[in-house]
Amino acid sequence: MTEANTHIGFKIESKSDFEILFNTHYSNLCAYANNFLKDVDASEEVVQEILFKLWTNKETIIITTSIQSYLFRAVRNASLNVIKHIDIREDYKVHNEYEMQNEHSTEDEMIVSELDLKIREAIDQLPMERKKVFLLSRYDGLKYKEIAEKLNISVSTVENQMVKALKFLRAELKDYLPWLILFFSDFFKNG
Q1: CA 43 to CA 14: how far, in whole Å?
Q2: Which domain holds residue 158?
Q3: Closest CA to 175 of 110, 137, 119
Q4: Residue 1 in 3-state DSSP?
Q5: Residues 76, 141: one domain?
Q6: SS3 for 188?
Q7: Is the whole-model pTM more than 0.70?
């Protein structure tokens, strides 16, 4: 590596030329890359890749500007490419997460809708008095004593009707029990 080679028309001619280049510029190039990337490991990787390409293509690369300008420009461009790829990856990740959430919420809405229909069909199969007791408890939120007063029956009759209603509904909806637990956690709890 001649004096002229350190400025204009630079070409790596030997291993010692490369070692001098590496030792002279490596730490400054890493610091420069880190200004962009804010990540020491990523910065070193960028610089190492540039220097590796320079070494492996030494036969064909002739640098027509100063070597320092060439290397700093190469580090800047490579760092900006890394940032661009990180941004694209992040955008893609955010987009995928959004799509997955929408997909899951649509699936959840469909499951809830289907479960609601199955629950209503099962409730419609209850005897009339049991159905009234169940609806007043689970849909109107009345306590057993309030139901007893409203229907003019005893609290023990309300309890008995609820036990039978829940037993019937659990049996009728057993295939849907995991989803019922997820979406309607208080639906099957006792009184």
Answers
A1: 26
A2: 125-183
A3: 119
A4: coil
A5: no
A6: coil
A7: no
Residue 110 located in a structural domain: no
Residues 12 and 65 in one domain: yes
CB 47 within 8 A of CB 30: yes
Residues 8 and 80 in one domain: yes
CA distances from 87 to 73, 84, 134 (A): 21, 5, 55
As for how many domains the chain has, the answer is: 2
Q: Which of 132, 117, 37 is nearest to 75 (CA)?
A: 37
* In-domain check, residue 109: no
CATH number of the structural domain spanning residue 81? 1.10.1740.10
**Structure confidence by residue, pLDDT tens digits, 28-62:** 999 999 998 898 999 999 999 999 988 888 888 87
Whether 101 is covered by a domain: the verdict is no
* Res 95: pLDDT: 67
Asked if 65 and 12 sit in the same domain, the reply is yes
64-122, pLDDT tens digit by residue?
888 888 999 999 999 988 888 877 777 677 767 766 665 556 666 777 778 778 888 98
Count CB neighbours of 155 within 10 A.
15
3-state helix, strand, coil in the chain (%, to 5): 75, 0, 20
Count, residues in the chain = 191
| Residues 76, 77, 81: CA angle, nearest 5 degrees | 115
